[in-house]
Amino acid sequence: MGKECLPTVGMVLVQLGFAGLNVLSKLALDTGMSPYVLIAYRNLIATVFLAPTAFYFESRRLSPTRLVLVLPLFSFLLGWLSPSQAQTSGLCLSFR
Prior knowledge:
Elements: H1 6-30, H2 35-58, H3 64-81, H4 84-94
Helix pairs in contact: 2-4
């Protein structure tokens, strides 16, 4: 077992993460949490974990002025076009 198994192991771990997320989402929705609150929490947690990493790796390529201008616009577009609302609403409707 070497480097040739690494993509397969990564793919399995990502799928396990998605399965865990769906189970936790279902449990949260079954206890009465609003789907919109769940979406807000998911996006907030993702931002908290991903923003420092993105800032670290991208700060070398972008000037600080450009980063201040581009980052809020990019974040707004990702939030607006995010399919998580449709996914969560569909999950909520499928378990009624």
